[in-house]
From TrEMBL:
Ranges that cross the membrane: none
GO cellular component, one term: cell envelope
Designated name of the protein: Imelysin-like domain-containing protein
Organism superkingdom: Bacteria
Keywords recorded for this protein, A-Z: Signal
Domain Imelysin-like stretches: 45-341
Keyword Signal listed: yes
Species in which this protein is naturally found: Rhizobium grahamii CCGE 502
Keyword Transcription attached: no
InterPro entries for this protein: Imelysin-like, Imelysin-like_IPPA, Imelysin_sf
């Protein structure tokens, strides 16, 4: 009898203790949503697009200077301005929602991937035709998206025949490149203008609810913000890495890597990751977590830190980077990017109560 009495007493004490211990917190911290959305708009999205537009303006000037002078010094400055624009655009291109996806503005700035090389053939044909009528911003704006954006300009500056840029002033190739830069500047300006209107998408994102045209409530707003992170991380892995390297058992396709000609592949990927981390940290998305889920935020911070230390060290020559001697680094990168996606989508999403019923991979 004494043994049973002891067991019953232990059970009673355990039950009493559990009743007094608060249950773990779960779900979205609703009180933090408003501040997080405002910071996302004012400290990340709007400055990001402004930086991209301003960089494109500097690139346009550098291209015009090259056309007027056609010297190696001017070409070097144009290439430096191009690299600068790649970096600023890559930081903000992770936001693939809102005004930038209207009227194909995103594709006007960046047409990628060009899986069958159709866009490249269009650029080569336009340069070969060399019709002066095609070398204006307005003319370029009315053509195929493959002829308008950063990948087209990369071919102008780095592709076959680019040495001609220093042989003749105001050559068609250069004037076409300047028009492309001007078009990128104008398209980026349209996105900036849309976000700068206080009563437009800016206000709609900052104030979820009945008055918002985008989000019916806080949950929808946070879902969109989380969607940027998830889709952005997936883009890094699926379109920036797996586009040319799918694993050790597959054949690498280095010519499918974005910006391989200008050796900006890893610089662009680094900027993509910087953009994602900036959104995560500057918007304060960790504040949406319940108090007992801080380790989830710490794990995401650690993943960003590791990737941003690793990617810039990869060989900028994609032929070398995909060689047998370097494949182990790419294998590790495949694993690390998948882990980042999982931590954001599954761990963070579940912790704020948005995993069930939401498939970020499908855009729902």
């Amino acid at each position: 009898m004494r043994l049973w009495q002891s067991l019953l007493l232990s059970l009673a004490l355990a039950t009493s203790a559990s009743a007094q211990t608060p249950a773990p917190q779960a779900g979205l911290n609703e009180e933090a949503v408003s501040a997080v959305m405002q910071r996302a708009v004012d400290e990340v999205i709007r400055p990001g697009y402004r930086n991209a537009q301003q960089s494109a303006a500097r690139l346009t000037t550098a291209m015009k200077d090259l056309c007027d002078d056609a010297t190696q010094q001017k070409l070097d400055k144009a290439k430096s301005a191009f690299d600068d624009t790649i970096r600023y655009w890559s930081v903000i291109e992770i936001v693939q929602t809102g005004p930038v996806i209207q009227d194909n503005l995103f594709e006007h700035i960046l047409f990628y991937p060009d899986r069958k090389g159709v866009g490249l053939k269009q650029v080569q044909a336009l340069i070969a035709k060399a019709d002066p009528k095609d070398a204006t911003v307005d003319a370029i704006a009315g053509k195929s998206v493959a002829l308008q954006g950063l990948t087209a300009l990369e071919y102008v500056l780095y592709g076959t025949g680019s040495e001609d840029l220093t042989k003749q002033k105001n050559s068609f190739r250069c004037l076409y490149g300047a028009a492309v830069a001007g078009n990128i500047q104008r398209e980026a300006g349209e996105v900036v203008a849309a976000w700068e209107k206080p009563d437009g998408v800016q206000g709609s994102w900052k104030h979820p609810g009945p008055q918002s045209e985008d989000f019916m409530d806080n949950k929808e707003a946070v879902t969109a913000l989380l969607g940027i992170l998830v889709h952005g991380a997936e883009t890094v892995r699926d379109q920036r890495l797996e586009q040319f390297y799918k694993g050790k058992d597959s054949t690498p396709r280095p010519r499918m890597a974005i910006y391989w000609r200008s050796k900006n592949t890893w610089k662009s990927m680094t900027a993509n990751l910087e953009g994602l981390r900036t959104l995560w940290q500057k918007a304060g998305m960790a504040e949406l977590l319940p108090a007992d889920k801080k380790p989830v935020a710490d794990a995401i911070d650690a993943s960003f830190k590791s990737l941003l230390e690793t990617v810039p060290k990869l060989n900028p020559d994609i032929d070398v980077a995909t060689s047998d001697a370097e494949k182990a680094k790419l294998e590790a990168l495949l694993v690390s990017t998948r882990e980042l996606i999982t931590k954001i989508s599954d761990d963070y999403g579940a912790a704020i109560g948005l995993s069930a019923g939401f498939s970020f991979s499908d855009g729902d």
